[in-house]
Protein 1
Amino acid sequence: MELRIKKLFPTATLPARAKPGDSGLDLYAHLPDQGLAMIEPGGRQKFWTGIAIELPEGYEAQIRSRSGLTSLGIVACGGLGTVDNGYRGDIGVTLFNHSFRTFTIRHGDRIAQLVVCPVAYPAVVEVEELSETERGADGFGSTGV
């Protein structure tokens, strides 16, 4: 399988794995004039990567937070975003600053991860009843803290 990637700008950085065997490819910020941007505490900002992708048929790409940024209070896309198979535009990443300090993003900084995953296409079937399970409808917090 291959992931086809087009640089939309000569100064864009191709996604890359930090280490062999990593499931995610690092995505890099592409800022105008190779500058920097600030995200205020409690704020959010969209960053473009300057790349477009062509996924293999039957796959999607998920944009996930980087653990290093998450430990600093910077979360991508509220945690997870999806790039559909047919999208061919610039890959964008919205970063949220959950910390109490202003955070700086520079051109070329790693801002998120891109994970390519297979997609299932189930038929949607409306039913009157669902099968019984031990858990049933017990949801958030039902198994304890």
Protein 2
Amino acid sequence: MGPLEANVNTNRAAGLGMIAVIGCLVVVAAMFGAALGAGGVYLALRPASQAAPAVSTAAPAAIAPPAESATGSVALAVGRVGPAVVTVVNHLGATAAPLGGDARTATGSGVIVSDQGYIVTNNHVVEGTSGLEVIFADGSRSEATLVGSDPFADIAVVKAASPVPSVATWGDSSALVPGDTVIAIGSPLGDFVNTVTAGVVSATGRALDASPGFRIEHLIQTDAAINHGNSGGPLVNLDGEIVGINTLVVRGSGSGDAAEGLGFAVESKSARSVADAIIANGVYPRPYMGVQWEWVTAETAALNGLPSIYGAYLSEVVEGGPAAQAGLRAGDLLTSLDGTAFDQDHLFLNMLLERQPGDQVLFGVYRNGGTGDATIVLGQRPAA
């Protein structure tokens, strides 16, 4: 069993790094793939990326708020939030390109949440960046800097260097019920800036496997069209308030069946909490163990001569880290957390992320044919 890239300590791609695989992104360099699978679910997507020359700088028509007579309408909501929606251009590679350059780039979407220039987008939109810029709804451009990101929630914050034209308001995602009208705004394919699509809330509280041993939870499902390049854009209600951050789309099951209208957004409750912490401190606090691990199912364990149990196999333990201080070592299999055994419904990383830095937790451990336990005081995951 080889080590996974996902880990709960120093790897920036840990856990939700897999979200880059399932996000609705557009990558323009010819070498990048367009349809990738993850967790047994076929997800047709492309990293939120598109070459800068392909990004239309023309301002879309009808950004201005509509007449007051359009009460409770989609148009009124779009008029309120539309000017705060941006295209995020991620210059990839070792060297940043000048504004408007044609180096390898990726594009996604974002939404301005502060008059100080803070913009919320997806973590997978800004991964691998060597330089960022944003394109405002009127077509003007600004350099931007990465403030911080959280791969587990797939949320990042960037800050525009130029004054921002408008600010969107956060809404209450917990008030949503299936059937509510919602609106997605973003830049599909990187070309169609500030495209508006509308639909309904199909369901709330959805969960999707992002990588072995981790499931992204508390997602809003919507049938509002979400396409490549919409990553990081807002999902809004009829009051023009942000109720979600669009993050991924499911196209099919891999069995040949194609699906439409399966878009997902990070609920505003989670997105705002993460974004506010990043704006204040540059990082959202996550627990740190100092390990590299891989998820082991009961079937995999049996095939390798182990008891038929689920767990996190430790392929590496960082010297001096919390796990090492608790006596854990490479080759150990963690089987439970605070008395709850791991299984297909109780995943290692999801359960760990419910804890906070400084918490004391008890792991069940399988080692060399015997069982025991280890008490760990969790550290704080270093900023990427």
Protein 3
Amino acid sequence: MQKLSVKIYMNLQRVKEALSDECGQDMVEYAIVMGLIALGATTAMKGLATLIGTAFTNVGNTVNTYTS
């Protein structure tokens, strides 16, 4: 019985050590930050694309007006 309780204790210690290990934590945080930056950039580009399209349409209309 004592051997079993020692084995259980040792396994619980290994689980405790594994849960407190923070080696990969930095990479996960960097991945989350990069994902948020990509999401923000995508959202900003969609709005910017609309503005650029409108500007080119206005330039095209102005050129057509003066050349007609």
Protein 4
Amino acid sequence: MLLMTAVLAAFVSSCVENNKIDNTYKRTVLVYIAADNNLSNVAQNNIYSMTSSIRNENDNANLVAFVDRVDNAPALLYIHNGVRDTLVKYEELDTTDPQVLHDVIDYVVEKFPSESYGLVLWSHGTGWLPTSQLHFVAPNMNYAQLRDGQTAYLSAADGVRDPFSADMVADTKAFAWENRQGETPKYSCMDLDDLVGAIPDDVFDFIAFDACYMGCVEVIYALRHKADYIISSCYEVVNSGFPYHIITRDLLNGSLMKICREFHTYYNSLSGWERMAGISLVKTDELDSLARCFGKIVAEYGEDIPKLDENGVQCFDRFSNHVFYDLEDLADQLNIKKEYLMELRLQLERVVPYKVSTAYIFPGDREQIKVDKYCGMSVYIPFEKYETSGLNAEFRATEWSIATGYGQ
């Protein structure tokens, strides 16, 4: 489940009076930046890009950024006309606390009454995975050992690299964890259920995940009542994240397909392992129909799914025990009835009006992954070998599993 734990936060000062702003705006976009971690400098660069992109009044729209960085007091910023005004300064807090996210959203909605709202969730992310399973899923990935609060600063002889060291290759984003404290790593994370509870229903036009692995159907389905559209990636996102120098105005204008196109175009123009970008736009009011469609497949072929050849289905992660597989390719590899497959494909076209991927994940790297299939949403496969770890049990608790009978 999506990562985050709890510590309450308090507003301590504000540069704006507490009366509600009188005007009603066309749109307000909140960017929630949880960067009290190794993405701190990247966050600063992204904020600069957002600020430089807004030199004039922008179509009666507002850009507000909540930012928590290493060795910086958390703050809520109003970005406009090439400047940043501090709306609120906070005492030290845990940005992975769902109550903090909830309170920030409430504050922004109250202060900036608008016809519509957008939310960008910016940080690290590991899809629906619960913190307790990261060691099992990804013992080969340093961040997994760090994010669940266990020490992982072993020597090179132990086969684990320090993720903050210069030789750590292919630095990417994966959602919300706090910075290490002293010699022992100490991170906190937010579960998917907590994230769902923190975001109000029927407020946001869109939610965009500037984070890794959030394009899994388990996360997207759980958030189906939280926004009309969701932008996310099925795999890892290069640590520089969205190209805000290009897309900031599109966020304010709600040009969602254009954001996806620009994201892909930007990274596809780069070289080396950074030439990687998978992104999709999901229409959430079609997700229940997708669940019914997939549930029909599960009812007839469910027993065959855990027996699939895991190397035969398009996979998007570098984990030792893979978790994120292409949803359409899963059905394709099952050799289901033609009418079932066509029904699923047609519904996926309704659910995912836009998706695009580069040809490789980490091209040229020793861990490169060829992307032959990209339907725009990943899905978990509850292999029998995962039963004893408890991972399958955690998956069965997701709304997607319950709604479809998948893995039950």
